């Protein structure tokens, strides 16, 4: 199975199916805008002038009623997935030859039209008389209509054994079956072409197709507050096969092996973790539980009694895998192979889900799995135990209950329940049914599912309902058999929609196996959030944790709760109560911490999972098996890592030991010595304050990247709030986390703290409201300390902070307490010892200040050694940070420094710098390992932590010829704009409006007179960017060496074949520089690209800090208007050349140039008109508003406006 094919096909298929179904609805006069009237004329219906068979009106009315209830889009989506699922099922069945007639319904083995068309008269499908088929074939023009009838008839035939997927069609589904299904671009043709036959070999392809089918909808709703209807799309995730095998083998497999110690099945269970050696007390409890379970069946464990429940079954992956193991168990017990499939489906496997689409596919997948083992399986209907949880919020429970109970009482009394009682009879519900069942019991069942789609399997049936389930079942049986028509219908619906799910929810099982939905409380809607708080107070923070807690209620005393979930519940303090209850009242049998790359299909570092099997009862001093896959490289194949695990990755631990660490994290790797660190009681907070800082309430209003504002308004290196206030500055450096980085850096943002934060502190209170901001711990503002990023998906990294910064909630910091020093603490928090310590409680994601402050810390006795290490490491990291334009201390590009200019050329300068950078990386690697060893020795952890540092953890930028060449061009353009100068280090001009610009500071290489730099594909102007790069390298190493330096630069940027160096540089400046600039400056560029459009007739960079209200007029008069004149002259010349061309090929070549230039000229004229309009407006910008606001003022004049002005400010 090639998942790439499925991934490419399914999302587009959803859109194609929706379009086809919508088009069919539109033909029927139904659209999102409304419903057209219909009228009847004899035997036909007329809708918008089109004739239809009269029976269409009843189906159409059902469709209209459904749309009124559910909405147009949701109804179309539902019908769409119904037909998608059916076509997918038919495709699988025809390729595996599972259709009774042996014909292909969707395709033809020899190519051409589907086989059923030519053999239609032989098929004997229900509701399709042979004479009608022959009449349509003889007509010669009814193939499309006949084919639709054949598909409907085939679905109706399959409804006998698969009513869940092929419910008998005589409704809006038939009405909306797409047209033109025989065309080569139909949804069926695309299904056949999009998924090659070999990709249908395994039933798992069905699950993957569905996962990819909903992927775009998932992307649309994820990260938002999710409506009930979107919960399936937001939470479903297909489980990697190896995890499914682990779950099944360590639950069902373990049960069988413990009950049958001599079983040979263990040899084939590659993902089974055999129980560790136990102390006698624990082993005795384990043996007792095995005996209790066997006793349920008699003298031996009966395969028919083993029950497996997946409460979030999705498309059935877990149940399909369980089928395989159960089949092996039955075979080992000696059952006849042909009897096994039906037994497994009807007795062993149970599943629930809120997504009816997924339930359809899960049921189908199981049937197909069983059909492969029993060719007669589909001859008779089966009773599958998989169903969807429904909503009853719009159901009239009183009416339904009375009609059913009325019929039941009539039957009970031996009275007729025929047509005379079609609508409820004569009110005999006042009399009791002999079973004691009352109307209120039926209503209770319906009301229990009032919010079924929102709560799903988390619903807990009340005791009074559970006690009535068997009686309800018997009464519904009775009414379905002998009741009147309406009562039969309601009884059937009540059983299917409410009784069956309630029975599954109330059941207990040997194994609960699931990949539950993941959704934190921030994504829950109000109804779901209230339910979580009321029913699952210990696990309410996420759906997955609520499922863990709910899972134990489904377990028998001897059962296992087995899931794959996020690993956060193992460590985070927010799950502490839940975790401690599990450790006290349940028993971990085995657990695998997967960590990074848990779900390769979503490529997410955030979705770090664990998978586990937990026994439902406590067993004192039980030793469980734990496997650590998280220490493997992040991108590694975790399936392979698990199968090739070493002894060092496997830990045998008594879970009572977890309680020795505060919060009881599942720190299975912690040694006795390691746990002693926590027992010492000494923490970071003994010597340092751990503080969060400012929450602005609206970052887009109060926070900027430092390069967005005037450098003159930024107050740097302030030592106190008083000095900051007295300075009169508006913006001050702000610690806001950032990417994983150690020792120094990530100083990117500034915050509006003018007048001691007057505006931000008052934010929200302007009209007597409540403050939206939170200026906390202000006494630590501007103090030196140690900071880190609160949110990260990798490792903990701390950084030295000099004085002058304001802390943020996501950039918390440590500050020395009176009488204490931070010396040694930076080294400690960047050591492998500390990483291991924070992993105990955090494992990535949020490193909040409270947890960091409470971590164990014993100040080093030889502080001078670690202080020296810190000093060197900070110096290297600072040198690295300041070597790039992102730093306000950037002195200039290293290849343009005085030292670089003393070398022969640009190549030599880069080589020297690259060697120095590589030396820094090697030095930092050695210093970090020394730092690690220092703390390993200090804490006595030599036997369990290695000082070795992987080079990927060294947070320095590596030399990269391509990127460094791009940075060199960026610096050159900065010098052209006047931002930098070859004569002085650092930032030269970054104020506002060009005020105070001093041309004399650019003697070696002159800055542009107006801060406007043309960047076209041809040298129309002397001061264009590509031309000036030649001047720039000439100023550095002499004009006579310009060619060799341009050659090296062009080679670095990536030349095309037969492209001269200056052409390569020009192409980069014209086509790629701005894109790179936007990326480097984090979507807040300082050089703005004014562009005429796709033809590239005109484009020029304008330096934001030098822009003023006259800039657009100058842009037009000095560049756009003259360029128009040049283009006209060029066109006239080309016209003459074309007229005088001696050959047709020359003339043709010239004509192409003329056509291209005319398009450019037309674009330029249009741009000039827009530019004139904006120039007349004399637009002013206020740098304090930020790039996002100011860039938007120029509309279509600027390139990549959506990139710059869109997105979040956080």
TrEMBL record:
SUPFAM superfamilies: S-adenosyl-L-methionine-dependent methyltransferases. Keywords: Methyltransferase, S-adenosyl-L-methionine, Transferase. InterPro entries: BREX_1_PglX (IPR047939), DNA_methylase_N6_adenine_CS (IPR002052), MethylTrfase_TaqI-like_dom (IPR011639), N4_N6_ade-DNA_methylase (IPR050953), SAM-dependent_MTases_sf (IPR029063). GO terms for molecular function: nucleic acid binding; site-specific DNA-methyltransferase (adenine-specific) activity. The keyword S-adenosyl-L-methionine applies. GO terms for biological process: DNA modification; methylation. It catalyses: a 2'-deoxyadenosine in DNA + S-adenosyl-L-methionine = an N(6)-methyl-2'-deoxyadenosine in DNA + S-adenosyl-L-homocysteine + H(+). Residues 347-594 form the Type II methyltransferase M.TaqI-like domain. Its EC number is 2.1.1.72. This is site-specific DNA-methyltransferase (adenine-specific).
